[in-house]
Protein 1
Amino acid sequence: MIDLLEHYAVAIMAILLGVVLAMFLVLIFFAILNRLWHNRGISRKREASESIQPLIYSYLDGSINRSDFAARLKNKHDITATWESIEIMIDNLSGEERKKLQMLLDLPPIKKHFLRKLNSRKPISLAQACVYFSKKTLTDKSIAVRLSVLQEHSYNVIAYAATLALVNTTNQGFRDMALLRFLLRKNNASMAVSDIIFKYYDISDDKEVAAEKLEFFVMNPDIPDKTRAAVIRMFPELGFYQTADTLRDLLQINVKNDPTGELTAALLGVLIDFSDQKLREIVEKHRLWESPSREVRLKVPGVYADIYGEETTRILLGLAHDPELEVRMAAQRQLLKHRPLISESRFEPDISTEWRAMKKSGDADVSNG
Amino acid sequence: MSQKVLIIDDDPAVSNFIKYRLSKKSYQVKHVDNGIEGLDAIRDFEPDLVILDMMMPGVDGREVAEQVREHGLIDPNRIIVLSGKKMTDEIKALFDIGIHDYIQKPFSIDLLLLRIERALASLKSR
Amino acid sequence: MFLTGNFLLGITVLVIFYFFALNLLYIILVVISYRSIRKFRDVDSIFNMTGVYSTNLYKPVSIIAPAYNEEQSIIASVNALLNIRYANFEVIVVNDGSSDKTLQELIDYFRLKPDNRYRPAFLDHKPIRQIYSSPRYPALVVVDKENGRKADALNAGINMASKELICAVDADSILEPDVIVKMLRVFMEDEKTVAVGGVVRMANGCTYKHRMIDQIRLPKSWLGRVQAVEYLRSFLFGRVGWDSLDALMVISGAFGVFDRNAVIRAGGYLHDTVGEDMELVVRLHKYHRQNNLPYRIRFIFEPVCWTEVPEDYKTLSRQRNRWHRGLADTLYRHRDMLFRPAYGRVGTIAMPYFLIGELLAPLVELSGFFIVALSWWLGAINISFALLFLSFSIVLGMILSLSAVLLEEMTSKRYERATDILILALYAFLENIGYRQLHAWWRIRGLVDFLRGKRDWGVMVRKGIKT
């Protein structure tokens, strides 16, 4: 019995060993082949870009024209190399050269190459196509439609790239549609939102109209609060001081029903940046230092940066004992600034324990933050 | 004798283009793609003008400019800085070092060539 | 005789079962890693394309570099950090009470001036002597504090940091120039991210050019090459696999990006452990799970930094001893998470794996040898079965190592020469002869030291990186 078992065990082991050995041989063969193939691809790419670059320069000079250039594009490597060089140059050059480079991107073989990618299902191809179409001036309606479909792609990054391509067009209709569709999405990362907003505004011809549109968007309750907060946080960067009234109204409306406090905190931050004079009133009316949202309480000390007095001291002293460390820190930092104006007895000795003074001489300028 | 221009920039597509246009104007041009070789080239090639990119991996434009001043390799006034980002503080620090000029990307190639010409002319006349 | 025979058989079956279970897990990890790399490689190259996310609106980062007695290399290291390709960052160098001229070198080169400022005290650490900054290098802050080991220095740096994200680095490892951008896209993809790690690769054998890795080569020494296989395996399918299972337990101390507030709330780095990097990640899991906060801890499979590994037995044995003590310590501290579904896959899969598959692995290996020896002595061994099983396990191990090499092929930085594959495969075989046993021995020593309560680091001799 035991003997038989042993016999089987040995046989099974031998078979298993054979299997893994075969697997190993296949794998190593594959690995080496793969590497050789990969290395060849790299060197072909390098060759292509070395031969294409001078051509681009001659084209920019006017020594050869577009059709001469197109005739020199022999294979896929040439097209990719052309695209890669042009892409970098477009970002770095302005004026006449940039326009000429954009015209080069319209060459039929290149355009066809990326149209194929735009209709592929592979994420990388889609994204490459989006980047391509964002670099040239887009006029084709069918491409715009395809891009707007991609705005709903499950990969956030593709939705972002498609939006970028549409925002970069000169067609104002495409741009506005794209921006709204993007903002209505559920899962945008706030950095991606800021980035799109910045680019949308940066290449808008009429800045005033663009500003009005953005102001209008942040009032739209269909757009997720998180996204609206991200848009609002861009306003100081874009210098939208004229929006202060709108934002203050929005704060008044929202302050009561803002469960996460994200929108309220963003509004407070921006209005503080704008040094809004009426902000204090709203804060005190709604007693925002008692808000359940940490983010909101964290903003309150900033409101009192330049306001001294009994009431300020009382609020800041309250926040200096907040359960959240960061809120305490912000309040204490503000108190330290106001210190010379507060009577020593009110300035409880324990509030500065979380700020260790490096040097007494540092009292006057509380930095770091 | 033709004047010598050194380009220190890690981006081949753009710097080759600058080199191409400068060579056409019969300048003697050398291009290196990193800060360390850039410093060597400043020593050996003795350029009349240096086009220096800010953003480079390893040793960047800031460090090159500092080393140039530290070791007195050439007059920092012979450096024109190219930069892609609006880094006000960094640019200020560079002007403190004494660079000649600063050009922001994206730039127009004609304007760049013009500035190079003017810079070389003004440096010569001194 | 009959009893011992049954007893031996029992243990043998147990060991064989252990072996198959562990390797099954490894194979699953390889498959998961492959699928995840294939999916996210695409996303990765999208982010690498210029034009995407090219404005200055990324989250700001504070890079924290603790330095202890590094007068030789500190200037080069700090300059490399200041040259990182990123728009909004600061570099905080924490001089951890060096007894050499590290601080003076910094003051002289960067023209540092004492900086009067209040500093917050989120986390505890040894007293700070002085803070320095330089008008010429606005992004640089140097903190001079009393010696208190790496975790202590990192905590001081975190207090000092003024940006949203912090990035803990070893001052003497070489970072990829676009490393921060690479890490940041994870935070962009998913806002719940609180920590990201990346692949740490061996710098030994590689050639340098301008403070960066130029050509990726294998080291010459036997210990170096065996470790090359080890590193590839552990980073490329270990951590990528755990990442896709959402159960990453380790972010290398050599490089990691964290959400500053999350780290502060979880309590910062722990002073009295030798495995502070792993311990922090486990504690972040614990903190967020306990408080029902949404979070992600992620790993990207691109290389982020290059580090010189020890190539002599003495230093390597100390390092592995320390790692194993760190692992034991972390698992012991957080033993309440073990097998608890409340902690997600960290509790149900990752921690049990680290306990059984890593912490106790050297004991199982040792008992395996013991059984073979005992059976031999009793004449109860089937020689052909034993030999077949041994070859099977070695070939399986080689297949796993080779799959790591193939996964590496899918990342951007690879060993370039085709012959390197053959060398790596050869060393995947050779590691079974000698190194494996030695490694198990070092780890057992670590375990014993842990049980004895030894907590210090042991001296780490680094060859240092030439720039």
Protein 2
Amino acid sequence: MIRNLFAAAIFAALAAGLLTAAIQHFRVTPLILHAETFEGEGGGHSHGEAAADHVDAAGTADHSHDAVALTAEDEAEEWAPADGFERTAYTTLATVLAAAGFALVIGAVSMFSGIPITFANGFLWGIAGFVAFSLAPAYGLAPELPGMPAADVLPRQIWWVGTALATGAAWLLLAKTRAGWAFAVAAALVVIPHIIGAPGAPDEPSAVPAHLATEFAAITLGTSLVFWLVLGTLFGKLNDVFARNRVAVPAGATA
Amino acid sequence: MNATTNVSTATQSLSISQRMIAGSLALLLGLTLLVGTGFAGDFRLHNGAHDTRHAMGFPCH
């Protein structure tokens, strides 16, 4: 059964992740690359040392494909995937691995809560995952392009994780009980992170044109919705298939 | 219909401890993957997963 859970999670994540990576390649990454052409212009933005490192790294990768010329230390200091195939390959890999991470996390929630992920309810798991991990965090931290002003990364990561956990807990609570108090607690869990408020961006002009930023926000949220619906539905379908096979096989025939 | 029955039967046939073990393993591996792709500060992980972080709404930079 443990093997079935992992197999269903991994296969569903592979399919949903590859589909998402394809959408990202055609609709999302071009916006990131476009935004990066404005990064460093106008001098108005700052998002900490990490960002400065990143700009340097991206710039270096652009201009020196003969990494051989760099000393080993320089190379280690400034490594970033080269634009083109290498960058696309890394993005695809990272998206598939993140997909596997999300799949295993909802698989774990299913195991802990005793609520199975099936073809019948996989769509709902997908919607819950989208709201908890994409929509609720985005409500406070809008999808961000390189070059946009933003608060320090650690406080934003803490708020992101806290919001995802609280929103996910609200879903789980309502999945387990529809008592009146549960609605009240769930509403509080959903709302409190937004009352606390996400770390605000510094009041600086963005290097990125507004139309790029709005397009990016809409497309990334839409892509995340597709990802989560496919992941949840497929995860449920595979769980059903594996469970059926398990029932069909005589006890003891599988490890 | 049938599938759902089978699945819930299969899930319920698991003991609590089996579910906790499966859940813990899945949670551990899943969080490791998410931290590595979405949160780790190491510049190699950051730069390798950069576009994914932006695309999936993880805080980046």
Protein 3
Amino acid sequence: MIEAAKARLRRTMMFVPGNSPKMINNAELYGADSLMFDVEDSIAVSQKDAARLMVKYALKALPFNCETVVRINHVTQTPFGIDDLNAILPSKPDLIRLPKTESVEEVRLVTKMIEEVEAREGFPAGSINIICAIESVRGLYEVRAIAKEPRVVAIALGGEDFIADLRTQRTERGIEFYHARSEILMAARDAGIQAIDTVYADVNNLEGFCREVTDIKDMGFDGKSVVHPTQVTAVHEIYTPTEKQIAHAVKVLACYKDAVENNKGVIAVDGKMIDGPIVVRAERIVAQAKAAGLLAEEGCEDEK
Amino acid sequence: MKTIRKEASVGFVESNDALVTVRPNAAGQGVTVGLTSSVKRQYGEHLENLVLETVKAAGYTDVHVEVQDKGAWDYALQARVVAALNRGGAE
């Protein structure tokens, strides 16, 4: 189950304020791959108790088809994080997002609580996993170890806090995230998990947003945290492969399947040798095409 | 059964939400509900029962629950009622 969670499509992870039932009710309409119900930064200290219960009951009652994530408060640096977990874990979100992750110990503490709840509630082991946000230099220096914790399926960059820690600000070119993005991406890949980019807060600047999404996609990021429904469509468009890429990927997978079934050794498609990484890339392109509705669910199996 | 110590409110008079206020009732008076809602005619009985069941399930008695509803779905109303009871403080 954890392996499936590591492979899940997460082009867009949309934040939803956890204390707003109206926003919770409408959240899934916009088509984000993951909904991140927030009980952390978007919730005033005086409303933490109300927000965590709202998210708890919403997750229990509403039949979400997309991935459900809850961003909790920090488990050791705030008095709210443990209460968040106690309230929310029994509602079985797909992921818990840890803010400002700075040590493996924090992740292990949460992992232990998840394992206990899974056992107590009779959830299959691996039902609830973790995404860690790196939002400080301290966290960035620990990211390689954090990414290798068994329940961690993705690392996200929490950009706003990170640049505050760096004592700089957001720029058009994004130079301020140059090192953090690279490091997070490498750590995620080294651990075999996903990397999710930070939010782009200027929701009215769609052009700047699209430029940033193109950059992070080209870097290798699996997706982006988003704060507004209009951003969801833009990211999905940028993450949609071209017709040519899809056709090639389908062909690669069909040839690969044929080679495996008929014990063929080296195979080639359009004159190029096909090996492991090319098959993996083709699988990802087909998954993206299916998610964009450009390919029927069984598309690649019907070819050949 | 638990009772609350003080009056407490949770929620907002906003679309799809409800402002829920709990007040201690006299001992033996049980759970009472006051409901203001734009959908009271269609859903009044359902909402009042939901509040009663939620209070009971949370283990409280002798409490008055005043609900100003603006079309909250069941889960949201339950969350507000439980949060209000928590804020009222178990005794």
